[in-house]
């Protein structure tokens, strides 16, 4: 493999790869060949990659030529990146959200984040599997399953869930099938698969990263974000992804930083005031013990722990959040479908529901489309029920929720366990999800960073650092200090 024979890519960071390419010990072409070969060897079991990019080697070769000419665009030049298959790529790959309903459509234009990656010199390696329609089709779904990709599997125990909906992105990063990946989250879809697959995930403030060209669920909460093996790699990817986009009005007021790696600090917890959201734990005794150990480690690193510092109203968010989702999913997805051009026959929820019924053998072999049916019944976004639910969500999660406790206790961040251990995949009953803490930050549209916290029953567990809007830099500083001091990341044995 050209330029990769002497270089072990397993657990290699973006900085490691850049250093090797700068010294001539590695080429982007060789690196891309190595990842493609690893996908071919390992992924038939994991099912994390839907398709590889037929143009990947050509892109890598072009990035090598630029480097030889003395031009280096930045830290992602020549770095292979997987993107979730609900993100448009205007190339020879498909964008399907995992459904055969979109199987014949080719995007006419890159999603903004894909354009950002191309501008940064990244190699778009392929499309990652996902929970079909970002896990918003059925109340009994199996995370990581899509009609197009089948069941994605957790690399630490292939009988267990990879969580979702950014399942393939999380699994592929953890199993060293790519350098970094892009996921998307509405509520938990970056944080959960990052946590249960033993990697770092950043769910940004809504509006920091554009959603244009991304198959939507909810414009109030949707956001792409980075998934990586280290905080440094996630920060480098976030720097490339963020930016103002005229196609997404939410980005106009974004307070993006030019370089999130500038916040990396091994001493970043010293003097920080951290709130311990105790009521967000308690769902698993071993996870609670890991959390206590993490709090002790932060204290040793000089943090001031405010314990407890619970977020008010967390148990009042589920119902209004679902109401908002149902209304916005119908409006946003039908708008997206309408943008695909005349070659796309499915324009409404009624069309998608009918398609799934007609192709039930492949689209609904294990679970149905109850959420599709509920969304189809909703009216326009001017209806009182929607506006009331949206107001409740914003007030309880922001003003009376995260803002209230952080202001009252003068906090730099809040911490909580990210998730319970991965559950066994079960098509008969659907996901056995017993605990996780993505909802407060997700409903508020605020940032959340998960970092490996340890293992329970040999399954990885993450800790979440949550904060106010646009506080990604602060959270990266705190998370990087915790990561560097504890080093809980342990790769799965999938070779």
Key traits:
globular, eleven-stranded mixed beta sheet, alpha/beta, 13% strand, 495 residues, two-stranded antiparallel sheet, 13 strands
Account of the protein in words:
This protein has 495 residues and is α/β, with parallel strands linked by helices. It is 37% helix and 13% strand. It is built from 16 helices and 13 strands. The protein has helices at 14-23, 28-46, 56-68, 112-119, 132-135, 167-174, 191-196, 231-241, 285-300, 318-338, 349-358, 360-363, 370-376, 384-409, 439-444, 472-486; strands at 49-52, 80-84, 123-128, 145-146, 150-151, 180-185, 200-203, 223-228, 273-276, 304-306, 413-417, 448-456, 459-466. The protein has an eleven-stranded mixed β-sheet with strand order 1-3-2-6-8-7-12-13-11-9-10. Strands 4-5 form a two-stranded antiparallel sheet. The longest helix has 26 residues, at 384-409. The chain is globular. The relative contact order is 0.14. The model has no long low-confidence stretch (mean pLDDT 97).
Number of helices: 16
Mean pLDDT: 97
Major sheet size, sense and barrel closure: 11 strands, mixed
- What's the N-to-C terminus distance? 18 Å
The strand line-up of the biggest sheet is: 1-3-2-6-8-7-12-13-11-9-10
Main structural class: alpha/beta
Radius of gyration: 21 Å
DSSP strand count = 13
Helical content stands at 25-40%
The shape is: globular
What amount of the residues lies in strands? 5-15%
The helix/strand order is HHEHEHEHEEHEHEEHEHEHHHHHEHEEH
List unreliable stretches of 5+ residues: none
């Amino acid at each position: 493999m050209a330029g990769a024979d002497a270089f072990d890519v397993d657990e290699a960071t973006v900085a490691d790869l850049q250093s090797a390419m700068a010294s001539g010990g590695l080429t982007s072409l060789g690196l891309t060949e190595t990842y493609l070969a690893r996908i071919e060897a390992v992924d038939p079991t994991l099912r994390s990659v839907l398709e590889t990019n037929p143009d990947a080697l050509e892109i890598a070769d072009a990035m090598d030529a630029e480097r030889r000419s003395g031009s280096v665009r930045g830290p992602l030049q020549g770095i292979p990146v997987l993107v979730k298959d609900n993100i448009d790529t205007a190339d020879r790959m498909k964008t399907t959200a995992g459904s055969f309903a979109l199987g014949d459509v080719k995007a006419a234009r890159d999603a903004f984040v894909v354009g950002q990656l191309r501008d940064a010199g990244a190699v778009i390696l392929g499309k990652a599997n996902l929970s079909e329609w970002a896990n918003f089709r059925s109340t009994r779904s199996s995370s990581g399953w899509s009609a197009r990709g089948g069941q994605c599997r957790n690399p630490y125990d292939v009988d267990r869930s990879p969580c979702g909906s950014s399942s393939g992105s999380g699994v592929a990063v953890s199993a060293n099938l790519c350098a970094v990946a892009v996921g998307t989250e509405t509520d938990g879809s970056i944080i959960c698969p990052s946590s249960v697959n033993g990697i770092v995930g950043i769910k940004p403030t809504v509006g920091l990263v554009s959603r244009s060209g991304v198959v939507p669920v909810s414009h109030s909460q949707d956001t792409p974000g980075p998934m990586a093996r280290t905080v440094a790699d996630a920060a480098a990817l976030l720097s490339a992804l963020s930016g103002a986009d005229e196609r997404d009005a939410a980005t106009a007021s974004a307070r993006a930083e030019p370089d999130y790696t500038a916040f990396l600090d091994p001493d970043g917890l010293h003097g920080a005031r951290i709130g311990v959201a105790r009521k967000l734990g308690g769902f698993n005794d071993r996870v609670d013990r890991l959390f206590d150990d993490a709090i002790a480690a932060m204290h040793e690193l000089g943090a001031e722990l405010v314990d407890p510092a619970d977020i008010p109203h967390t148990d009042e968010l589920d119902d209004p959040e679902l109401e908002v989702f149902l209304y916005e999913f119908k409006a946003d997805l039908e708008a997206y479908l309408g943008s695909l051009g005349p070659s796309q026959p499915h324009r409404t929820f009624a069309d998608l529901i009918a398609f799934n019924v007609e192709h039930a053998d492949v689209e609904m072999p294990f679970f149905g489309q109850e959420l599709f049916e509920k969304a189809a019944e909703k009216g326009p976004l001017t209806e009182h029920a929607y506006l009331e639910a949206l107001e409740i969500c914003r007030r309880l999660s922001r003003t009376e929720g995260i803002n209230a406790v952080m202001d009252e206790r003068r906090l730099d961040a809040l911490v909580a366990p990210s998730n319970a251990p991965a559950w066994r995949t079960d098509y008969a009953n659907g996901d056995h999800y017993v605990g996780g803490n993505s909802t407060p930050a997700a409903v508020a549209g605020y940032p959340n960073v998960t970092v490996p916290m340890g293992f329970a029953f040999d399954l990885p567990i993450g800790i979440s650092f949550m904060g106010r809007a646009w506080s990604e830099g602060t959270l990266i500083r705190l998370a990087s200090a915790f990561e560097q001091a504890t080093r809980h990341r342990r790769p799965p044995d999938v070779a």
